[in-house]
Amino acid sequence: MAQESGEVWEKFAVALADMARDLLAQDSVQATLDRIVEHATVLINGCDEGGILTVRRGEVRALAATSDVVRMADRIQQDLREGPCFDAVTDREQLYAIEDLRRPHEKWSRFAPELRKLGMGSMMGFLLFTDDDELGALNVYSRRPNMFDESAQRAGWVLASHAAVALSSARTHQQLGDALETRHEIGEAMGILMERHGLGEEEAFAVLKKASQDHNIKLREIARKVCETGERPR
Question: Which residues are in the ANTAR domain (predicted)?
Fold first, then answer.
């Protein structure tokens, strides 16, 4: 039995390493999110569906889902303002689990029956990140009750930990890329204003900044419009 258990975890470790490489190879945050939920259905025993959502100031937003059923479950949490992710916002628990959705659930008395109507038998939720007042969570579902034993919970926790690192890396990479692209567009717009409208460097930047403030539009959007039209913003 011990040898069999060791072989199972050895296979899991190999699969986890493959997942880590796969996540880091994705070229966008969305692609990383999509791959995380796909890996969850493979690596967590009993997992039929998976999804990632955020809760920010009481608003739920689905970031990735393996099916429309998962998106419906996310909307139920939003509509009822009840469920594991809402609780996780306040107490920062790393794991939530509902072992058997057929039984009354005291903590989520309205949410659990609605999941049961969607054909779910059990679920688990794992924190991925907390950022100020925003929370990201990985939710996994099984159509059968009592599917997520201690081994599945441990596998989910390990997967979620690796996924959180990959997601953080993807977000940082995208933010850096956006910052570089923004700087390039602003520089190009300033060059157009300097060449076509006879402005100095500081004056060109001041024109862009004032237009952004006056119209409550991001500086990058003002710069992009100048690059497209060649006109000085009003």
Answer: 166-227
Same structural domain, 102 and 7: yes
48 contact partners, CB below 8 Å, separation of at least 6: 41, 141, 142, 143
If you search the block for the tokens 């969570």, which residue do you land on?
137
SS3 52: strand
Instruction: Note whether residue 234 is domain-resident.
Output: no
Look up tokens 């009750």; give the residue: 145
Mean pLDDT of the chain: 80
Q: What pLDDT score was predicted for residue 129?
A: 72
Closest to 111 measured CA to CA, from 65, 66, 74? 74
Asked if residue 148 and residue 72 are part of one domain, the reply reads yes
Between the CA of residue 116 and those of 76, 111, 193, what are the distances in Å?
A: 12, 9, 61
Alpha helices in the chain (DSSP H): 2-24, 29-43, 68-80, 84-91, 111-117, 150-197, 201-215, 219-229
Kindly tell me the burial class for residue 213, based on how many C-beta atoms sit within 10 Å of its own C-beta (0-12, 13-18, 19 or more). exposed
Domain count across the chain: 2
Note the pLDDT tens digit of each residue in 66-105. 999 999 998 888 888 888 777 765 667 778 888 898 888 8
